Amino acid sequence: MTLRVLSVASEAVPLVKTGGLADVAGALPAALAPHGAVLTTFLPGYPAVLGAMKRAKTVHQWSDLLGEDARLLAGKIAGHPLLVLDVPHLFQRDGTPYGDARGKDWEDNWRRFAAFGRAAADVAEGAGQGKAGAFDLIHAHDWQAGMTLAYNRFAPASGAPLPAVMTIHNMAFQGYFDARIFRGLGLPRAAWAMDGVESYGGVGFLKAGLQAADAITTVSPSYAAEIRLPEFGMGLEGLIASRGSAVSGVLNGIDNGEWNPATDAALARPYTAKTLGGRKANKRALEAEFALDRDDGPLFIVVSRLTWQKGMDVLPEVLDHLIGLGGRLALLGSGDKAIEHELHRAALRHRGRIGIRIGYDEALSHRMQGGGDAILVPSRFEPCGLTQLYGLAYGCVPVVARTGGLADTVIDANVAALAQGAATGVQFVGVSYCAFAEAISRTIALYADKPRWKQVQVNGMACDFSWGPSGAAYAALYRSLTGTRP
Ligand code: ADP
Ligand code: GLC
């Protein structure tokens, strides 16, 4: 039996992306299609999304969606069904999906994503779906979609609540708001409870979704275990632990169509594991692009949000060490202004050795994976992480902190793994200067051992982190919740 699933997310490639959530929400429909599940993606109508929906049909209208006029548009995203909530007053704004151009969150984010959740719950129950009627299941992603499940549970427009999955892409963002907003949510009083939307005296959108979900997933098995602990659960560890076996980890995949060095149009020279020599042309191009000295020493890259989560505050501290050992760094990212400042200072100290690009540039991120020798991912916590997976696919050896999805996807080049020919990268424990610097020393020593380095690259490129197994895992979960067979 074909399953109809409403996948509710605040971003999805190729229409709108600020991070890995967009990659995953964008990839899920294709990942689930072979398993008889048709995913319809539900997105807010930001300018970038509406711009791509020129010929979209209006399939439903609301005259009072939490006080707003709203319409539902139907279209396609990468050939898969797409529904978009158009509320100009809430979503047609310049800036990011969550805040203004300076990065300050919109004050009315609670209203924006409550309206989004209310609409998603209505759509899941069949609004605008004609004869197809209600969906079989709701799959909500992160706090922005969390309220969908609260509306589905406490205020279904008709009928009984639908089965629901809540996926946590990042526990650090919980959509926590003052208790006063509760009145504006249009929920019955019963929802104001510990097992409802109440969270530490306020309203928690992620918490609300987790409470109402039949199953909770996060994006790697290690992170699923970590969020039971206060250090990673960020206040919701008790809830997670209490849900027991309803919580599981399904590792993200990568889109091999987008991220394949053999066919990547962004690269100066495409290559495969058999033609690794082709990387040299990409490395030369990258050196030129970042105004770096030309040499055959190790070229490290970073493609990241520049935040504490990503360990980017420690990066500037290890750069003197990295450069002292003959390394160079090309960095692309944006975020914390203090970190940006420190990185600029390091680049001034080491002209020709460090190149910094502040901003967001998808094509450049591909060129960096194709020309860099190693990618640094020193995250303090990492639900899954995608850039290390892209690094593996591109022979750009990941150097990662042992946490979450980074721990699950990279095999450290320790003595045993090297002897077995199994290593795919370098791991270190704890994001401290000492541990990170030691990992950089180990990487540079490994790089100098050409046959071993090549073996590590080839091993990484042979890893299969495509969506196959994870698509099957989500499909099995959907089937178990709906009691259906493939
Ligand atoms: P997170 O979602 O926590 O930021 P992930 O590793 O899961 O981390 O996903 C980040 C995604 O965003 C990857 O696809 C990465 O290539 C991309 N990315 C991050 N920063 C930039 C940037 N400055 N320019 C281009 N792509 C970026
Ligand atoms: C979040 C996490 C990241 C994960 C991504 C996609 O942004 O920080 O680790 O890969 O979501 O699931």
Topology:
Elements: E1 3-8, H1 20-32, E2 37-44, H2 47-51, E3 57-65, E4 68-77, E5 80-86, H3 88-91, H4 109-124, E6 137-141, H5 142-154, E7 164-168, E8 176-177, E9 198-199, E10 202-204, H6 205-212, E11 215-218, H7 221-226, H8 230-233, H9 237-242, E12 247-249, H10 279-289, E13 299-306, H11 315-324, E14 328-335, H12 337-349, E15 354-358, H13 362-371, E16 374-377, H14 387-394, E17 397-401, H15 404-409, H16 415-420, E18 426-428, H17 433-448, H18 450-462, H19 468-482
Parallel strand pairs: 1-2, 1-6, 2-5, 6-7, 7-11, 11-12, 13-14, 13-16, 14-15, 16-17, 17-18
Antiparallel strand pairs: 3-4, 4-5, 8-10, 9-10
Bound molecules: adenosine-5'-diphosphate (ADP) and alpha-D-glucopyranose (GLC).
The site of alpha-D-glucopyranose (GLC) has 14 residues, from helix 1.
Please characterize this protein's 3D structure:
It is a single chain. By secondary structure, the protein is α/β, with parallel strands linked by helices. The protein has two domains: 3-253 and 468-482, Glycogen Phosphorylase B (Rossmann fold), CATH 3.40.50.2000; 273-462, Rossmann fold (3-Layer(aba) Sandwich), CATH 3.40.50.2000. The protein contains 19 helices and 18 strands. It has helices at 20-32, 47-51, 88-91, 109-124, 142-154, 205-212, 221-226, 230-233, 237-242, 279-289, 315-324, 337-349, 362-371, 387-394, 404-409, 415-420, 433-448, 450-462, 468-482; strands at residues 3-8, 37-44, 57-65, 68-77, 80-86, 137-141, 164-168, 176-177, 198-199, 202-204, 215-218, 247-249, 299-306, 328-335, 354-358, 374-377, 397-401, 426-428. Strands 3-4-5-2-1-6-7-11-12 form a nine-stranded mixed beta sheet, with helices on both faces. α12 links the parallel β14 and β15. α5 packs across α6 and α14 (387-394) packs across α18 (450-462). The radius of gyration is 23 Å and the shape is globular. The chain starts with a strand and ends with a helix. The model has no long low-confidence stretch (mean pLDDT 97). It binds adenosine-5'-diphosphate and alpha-D-glucopyranose (GLC).
